[in-house]
Each structure stands twice: as C-alpha cells, then as structure tokens.
Amino acid sequence: MAAITNPRVPFTNSISGGMSLGRKMVVKGGISPGSNGFSLDLVCGSDEIAMHFHIRFDELHIVRNSLISGNWGAEERSGGMPLIKGEPFEAQFECKEDCFRVELNGKHFCNYTHRTPYHKITHVKGDGDVLINQITFEG
Fold first, then answer.
1. How many alpha carbons lie under 13 Å from residue 8 in its C-beta half-sphere?
2. Domain range holding 39?
3. Which domain of life is it from (predicted)?
C-alpha cells in the first residue's frame, strides 16, 4: 500500500501506479477552525484535472469539476457540507468503472462520473487551508 505522509500544503505528488479500476485513495487530515476551504485534485499529466474536489466553507458546498483541454466543465454542487471546521476528516475516492464513488467520514457523499479516462490520472494535488496527515492508495 503506497502512502504519502504529512505533505506540506500546497503539494503535488505522483500516484505510484496511477489510478485503476477498484483502486481507492484515502485522505486523512484536519480542518483548521478558521478554514475557508481546500481542494483535492486528481490530475492527468500537467494540464488536465480529472476530478477537482473543492470544499468551500464560505458557500457551504463541495464543488466537483474537471479541467479538460484548458476548459472547466459544468460544476456539480449537490450534497451540502458534511465536513466541519476544526474537526478531523477522512475522504475516500474509489475508482469505479463509470465514476468515482466519494465517501466523507465513512458516509457516501457523491458519485462523480468520469469525464476523462481514469487510467490517465498520474498525480494528486492539494491546496488551501487544510492539514493532511496521510494519503493512502489501496488496490
């Protein structure tokens, strides 16, 4: 099981072996009490974002989107805000055939339909006001 431990935010780390069907990325961390939000991105090479997962506390939404050929797609904002400032969190992204299945703190949050082939994903990026303790890849 590959792991990224205590990365300094912002960070970009390669995903050993990339993403594949059934593979899970588990992110464990903490959210500061004054956080405006943070993002986790699954990136293809240097210029495409397969999945942008942006926690926005000021809007009480978690925005999902993709950046393909320099253009952002349609934002997905359903699901509200299950994360709480000042508390630890766990986010799990499971690569399914047609989507990423996302769980937050052990509860299903959303499915994000693949807009780009998942096998092209090479890196994970993190940015914003968050402390990441560990990112693991299973499967």
1. 0
2. 2-138
3. Eukaryota
Total of domains in the chain: 1
CATH number of the domain enclosing 20: 2.60.120.200
In degrees and rounded to multiples of 5, residue 115 shows phi and psi of: -110, -10
CB 71 within 8 A of CB 90: no
Omega within 30 of 0 (cis) for the link into 88: no
Structure tokens at 138: 């299973």
**Cα Rg of the chain, angstroms:** 14
> Which backbone phi and psi does 118 adopt, to 5 degrees?
-60, -25
Tens digit of pLDDT at every position of the chain (139 positions): 679 999 999 999 999 999 999 999 999 999 999 999 999 999 998 789 999 999 999 999 999 999 999 999 999 999 999 999 999 999 999 999 999 999 999 999 999 999 999 999 999 999 999 999 999 999 9
